[in-house]
Structures are given as structure tokens and as C-alpha cells.
Amino acid sequence: DAGVIQSPRHEVTEMGQEVTLRCKPISGHDYLFWYRQTMMRGLELLIYFNNNVPIDDSGMPEDRFSAKMPNASFSTLKIQPSEPRDSAVYFCASSPGTGYSNQPQHFGDGTRLSIL
Amino acid sequence: KQEVTQIPAALSVPEGENLVLNCSFTDSAIYNLQWFRQDPGKGLTSLLLIQSSQREQTSGRLNASLDKSSGRSTLYIAASQPGDSATYLCAVRREGGGSNYKLTFGKGTLLTVNP
Predict the structure, then answer these.
(1) Residue of B nearest to A90 (CA)
(2) Which residues of chain B lie closer than 8 angstroms to A95, CB-CB?
(3) Which of A84, B45, B48, B57 has the most CB atoms around it within 10 Å of its CB?
């Protein structure tokens, strides 16, 4: 069974450009999470969805960040315009639904984003 | 606001040694606690999940304990091997269950097991 798939694995772009990160969750999982990991702040939850609906976006740092989940098998995290301080590793994770509320989250391998 | 602290930040041990990693959290109103492993350039892999009503969980050479009232958890690794080298993170999920899925992570302990 395929795990959580993220693309691209690496992204290098210049400040001011739009960045789009993509995630395909594990089939049948109802929850999808976006995290950001930096050396200074560790791993932080940005937003999560349940059945394609955003539940908690309190971790989204600024209006420059937006996330969508148009269907159960795809989500995007967009940064526009990007800034050097957005450089980090961005992880997507998915988890089964509330009937399995003690199941762990399954993580993708992340997108390493560098903003020059 | 929940804060999760992991001590030590880094640990180096010889192969075969038993070791303990520590995790503490400030708010004891948790639903569960999880231990993850992260290899370089990879995502997180869940190792053990302890529900708030449990005291410990075991998987192979790994044993995780939870003392919810004191806000502490430990991950015990028996007979360490070079393949155990990785960063170990703990995360707590706040009380409420159901749709309340927010995890708060510690910054991890970087473990190196030397052959």
C-alpha cells in the first residue's frame, strides 16, 4: 500500500515567487495534516482537514499561506509571495477517521523548500 | 499553551547499551502521547502510541511509559543497535478526542549508536 506522497521533494525558488506543495494522502484516510519543520521551532502543525474540510488553521503563519483539499486524494499548500523565512521542510500526514482516533498519523517524506 | 520538552537533545552510546529518552509536557490534559522516529531526509514513523489511560506500551526492544499526572514519558530502548540511530520525537495530542487532532511535538533527541 502506498504511503503519503509529497511533491516536489525539493524546491528552490526566489523570494516573491509563488510556491505550491502537493500531497496525496493514503487512500481511505479521512484526516490530512500539513506541518512545517525548522531547526529553531521544530515541527509545527499548520492546518488539518477532515473529509476535505479545514478544521483548524490556527497554525498558518500569515495570509501568504493557503491550503486546499479539493478532493479526498489531493491537497495543496500554497505560499504567495514566498519569503526567505519560509525556508523549511514541509510535511504532509494522513490518518484514519474518528472511529480510529487512536491511530497514529502517517507522514510523507516532506518537501525541502529553500527561498533565496 | 502546551509545551513539550525532550532531554537530552543528543545522545551517543556504544552498541548494545540500554538507554532512556525523556519527554515532558506542561499540560496534563492529553488524549494520547506518541513516539516517532525520523531518519535523515525522511518523514516521521510512528513507533508507539500510549493512550492517556495507559501506563506503558511495548514493541520489540522499545518500551514507552507515561505518567500523565507528572507530565512525563520515557522511551526505553534495549540492546541498542547502529540501525537505531535517528532522531526520536515525542508528541502529545490534546484532550477531546474525536476531531481534536492537534499534535504538539518536542524538538527531538538525536541518537547515535556507535558500532
Answers:
(1) B43
(2) 101
(3) B48
A10, A29, A31, A43: best to mutate for the B interface, most B CBs within 10 A: A43
CB contacts of A93 in chain B (<8 Å) are 43-44
User: Cell digits for B27?
Assistant: 499540560
* pLDDT of residue A108 exceeding 80: yes
Contacts of B46 in chain A (CB under 8 A): 104-106
- d(Cα B81, Cα B102) in Å, to the nearest integer? 33
List the grid coordinates of B64. 514507552
Amino acid of residue A55? I
* Residues A7-48: tens digit of each pLDDT: 999 999 999 999 999 999 999 999 999 999 998 999 999 999
Q: Report the alpha-carbon distance of residue A57 to residue A49 in Å, rounded.
A: 9
Q: Which pLDDT value is given to residue A1?
A: 62
For residue A30, the chain B residue with the least C-alpha distance is: B99
**Choice among A12-16, A99-103, A110-114, B82-86 with the minimum mean pLDDT:** A99-103
Q: pLDDT tens, B11-52? A: 999 999 999 999 999 999 998 999 999 998 888 999 999 999
CB contact under 8 A, A106 and B46: yes
**Quick one: three-class SS letters along B21-54?**
EEEEECCCCEEEEEEEEECCCCCEEEEEEEECCC
